[in-house]
Specification:
268 residues; mainly beta; twelve-stranded antiparallel barrel; 4% helix; globular
């Protein structure tokens, strides 16, 4: 815990404008109006159930409808059946309803929702609507940008449903509260001279869940580094590690690689 506190303190010393593009959570700010973004997320996670590793692939497309509304479609593939196969898909929408802008800072709040479909057998107590469970999620997110530092937190309610032909186990809790906290800092460049400069961001994210039926919970820590090239291309590298957990889930530790490219003014 001492090292986590030190890392957050290092991220918090700030001076100009920062990015709000986190790796495993969404900020309250939206995709640029009229833009289309294509993202491919990959993860390699240790699977305690099989004493092996699970590889997952997640292609996504995001549309910034206007400055306040964005939508995203995602699909999820993994090798849980000994080959890379389509596991599910989801639709996500976020509406920014509050903005407070200042010269070197701003504050945003947004509401979001997700609906997910999944066909795989249910093998864990934790509710994961991004590749493991069918269901829906609704929540709120708030993001504060102060010079080079972005702080973001969200709270959401998730409800798991049956996975196609696999009924949700009656003894498991189908309702959960999700909560996150993220901090990111622009590390490079020290001074902007062109939008073509490569940005390097360091960030730390905490991702947790509590099953309301039994009070069981977990908390993950996700340190990451992010590269933004020519203000359009994005590369994320992250490592996820469980800090504590009383919720059974065989896949909880591993690495992420995300690649994204944004096309501006496509639909305007």
């Amino acid at each position: 815990m001492k090292y986590i506190v030190i890392f957050i303190c290092l991220l918090s010393g700030s001076y100009v404008a920062a990015q709000e593009l986190f790796v495993v959570t969404e900020p309250a700010s939206n995709a640029p109006a009229g833009s289309l973004s294509v993202r491919v997320g990959q993860s390699l996670m240790k699977n305690d159930l099989e004493d092996d590793y699970m590889y997952a692939l997640s292609p996504e497309i995001t549309w910034g409808i206007n400055k306040n509304l964005m939508v995203r479609a995602s699909s999820y593939l993994d090798n849980s059946v000994d080959r890379l196969d389509l596991a599910g898909a989801s639709a996500y929408a976020k509406y920014r309803f509050y903005s407070l802008d200042d010269l070197q800072s701003h504050f945003r709040m947004a509401a979001f929702g997700r609906y997910s479909w999944n066909k795989n057998p249910i093998q864990q107590d934790a509710i994961d609507l991004m590749g493991k469970n069918s269901g829906f999620e609704v929540g709120l997110v708030a993001t504060q940008l102060i010079k080079k530092v972005a702080l973001s937190t969200n709270l959401s309610y998730a409800r798991a449903l049956d996975n196609k032909d696999n009924h949700f186990p009656e003894l498991q809790g189908a309702h959960a509260l999700n909560y996150t906290f993220s901090v990111g800092r622009l590390m490079y460049p020290k001074r902007y001279v062109s939008y073509k400069q490569t940005n390097i961001n360091a960030m730390l994210e905490l991702v947790g869940q509590t099953i309301t039926k039994n009070g069981r919970s977990y908390m993950d820590i996700v340190p990451a580094v992010q590269f933004i090239i020519n203000s359009q291309a994005r590369i994320d590298l992250a490592y996820q590690k469980q800090l504590y957990g009383s919720v059974y889930r065989p896949v909880k530790d591993g690495v992420f690689l995300k690649l994204e490219y944004t096309f501006f003014n496509v639909t305007r």
